[in-house]
Each structure stands twice: as structure tokens, then as C-alpha cells.
Amino acid sequence: MDNFVDCWYHSADGLRLYARDYACRDLDRQDPATVLCMHGLTRNSADFAGLADHLCERFRVISVDQRGRGRSDYDSVVANYTPVTYVQDMFTLLEQLDVAEVTLVGTSMGGLMSFMMAAMQPERVHSMIINDIGPEVDTRGLDRIKGYVGKTGPVSNWDEAVAQARMINGAAFPDFSDEQWLDFTRGVYYEEDGVPVMAYDPAIAQPMADEDSGAVPDDLWPLFESSAAIPMLVLRGAFSDILSSDCVEGMRARHNDLQVAEIPNRGHAPTLTEPASLAAIDIFLSGLPI
Fold first, then answer.
1. DSSP reduced 3-state for 101
2. Confidence at 213, pLDDT banded by 50, 70, 90
3. Which stretches of the chain are assigned E, i.e. beta strand?
4. Where are the alpha helices (DSSP H) in 20-66?
5. Neighbours of 68 (CB within 10 A)
6. How far apart are the two ends of the chain, measured CA to CA in Å?
7. How many CB atoms lie within 10 A of CB 169?
8. DSSP-derived pairing of the beta strands 189-192 and 102-107
9. Which residues contact 85 (CB under 8 A, 6 or more apart)?
């Protein structure tokens, strides 16, 4: 049974966008802190279903579908598929919900957005949980992602969809059971006339091919350094091809209080429901000032 309500809002340029709003289950908390979860390039709000269910014992959790993903409108202006635009959409959402301060949870692209949001409106960002991304993006993983985004062929049934999801993501989740792969697949596909379809606009791949589009920022170190006063947890898949160990060490050097957790048996990116992920997140959040 769904434990969230649908949240619809409009972007500044008129797109109808979607988010899941998970209320805090602790009724004694009159004004619970808010967590904003932002997904990776081809994903959507379903990515955070397990984490949101865990966190809403103490927090209100908002999990979004960026434009071109999930239930949000696709954008006819392909050049808008960049983090700069998505960040503006996030600020629009927070304004509509009258949320003054948030903890940001960002996976991959969502982590890059977190750095940008903290630099643009630092007073709004209480803390940050960054999932398998850093101010430098490892070219190995970037080339891998460019190799499949917007290029996957159609499938005709759920068995084929699961096989396709495993082909793309199998190296990141080597210990997934068949049931976990089905759950994962149902999060990244939707059903249209009985046929599974990838839940994103294939056109999101186009700006990635243009080095000047801003879809993959070259150097986010200045933005990262500007957020050094904000409490931050970084999670890294033990064999990630997006966030290198060297990048993590560079982040430690620039953020004295940085907390880091390496998630075993994971590539890019941890699901954030692994026991090691949940333990690191709980420890981090419990140590923050309310």
C-alpha cells in the first residue's frame, strides 16, 4: 500500500511535474524536518521508496520525478534537460510546499544538483547526503552511461524488461535476487497498453553529447568548497565507476567534517536500502542539530 500522497506542481516554464510526499509517521513531531530526495539521470521517485519508508518515521520525505522522468511532463525543449533547469524546478517545488530548509539526498545527478543548490541557496540546505557522486565524474562510468541512455531497444513483456535491466545494471548489484530485480525493474519501467516502457524521455541523452550543454559539469570543486560548512555524508559503492576513491579523498581534504561510508558489493549507485547505507544515514542524521 502506498504511504505517500501525490504532489503536482508547475515549473516556471509551465511543465506539470510530480513528486511523492511522505508524511512523518511520528505524530508527536509537530513540524518535522523535511528530506528532499533527488534521483539519478534515468531514474525517478520510485528509487527512494525504501529509504523514504525508513526515514518517514522521523521526517517528512519528498521524492521527485525530474522533468522527463516518471510521471512528470516530458520537455519539448531538449536543451532544458540539464541540472541547472532541474535545480530551478526543485526551488519551485520547495516554494510551493513552503519548505524553508531541507536535508538533500542526491543520487548521482541528484548529488550534482545538491552541490548546486547548496551554492545557490545555502541558507536553505540543512545537510546533504550524497550518493556515489563527487565534484569530478569518473570518465569510465560516464562513457558507460552514454553508451546506453536513450539507446535501449523496446521490450515486449516484463521478463524482457528484467533481462534488459540486469544487462545494464548487473555489475552494480551482483547479489540481487530475482525478486529484487523485478522490484528494481518495476521502478524504472512503466506499463503502457500492457507493455513495459522505460520511464524516461530518451531525449535526455542528447544534452550529454554536447560538451557545452552543462548536462555534465566539468568542475564542481568550487561549488563543493562553498558548501564545506554544511554537514555532509558521502556514500560510495565499493566498486563505483563514477565516484573514484581519489575524488573521495579530495572531498575529505576540502571538508573537514565530511562523513564517508563505502557500501560493500555495490557499484554505481547504492540503493540506499542496504544495511550499511541505512546505518550510515541513521548515524549521520542522528548527529545533526535539529
1. coil
2. low
3. 5-10, 16-22, 34-38, 60-65, 102-107, 125-131, 189-192, 195-198, 232-237, 259-263
4. 49-55
5. 25
6. 30
7. 18
8. unpaired
9. 67
Q: What is the pLDDT of residue 27?
A: 86
Over range 178-186, report the average pLDDT: 97
- Which among 180, 172, 115 has a CA at the least distance from the CA of 148? 172
pTM: 0.96
The H or E element containing residue 116 is helix 109-120
CA–CA dist 101, 125 (Å, integer): 6
**How far is the CA of 284 from the CAs of 161, 233, 263, 280, in angstroms?**
36, 7, 15, 6
Asked if 102 contacts 121 with a C-beta cutoff of 8 angstroms, the reply is no
Query: What is the C-alpha to C-alpha distance for residues 61 and 99, in angstroms, rounded to an integer?
Result: 11
Measured between alpha carbons, how far is 210 from 206 in angstroms, rounded to an integer? 7
Cell of 258: 565530511
More confident residue, 242 or 209: 242
- Return the SS3 of 200: strand
Spatial separation of the C-alpha atoms in residues 57 and 55, rounded to whole Å: 5
Contact of 103 with 36, CB cutoff 8 Å? yes
| DSSP helix/strand/coil, 19 | strand
- The single residue listed with the C-alpha cell 562513457 is 143
* Over residues 260-283, mean pLDDT: 98
Polymer length in residues for the chain: 290
The lowest-confidence range among 10-24, 89-103, 149-163 is 149-163
State the CATH class of domain 5-150+200-286: alpha beta
Q: How far apart are CA 4 and CA 20, in angstroms?
A: 6
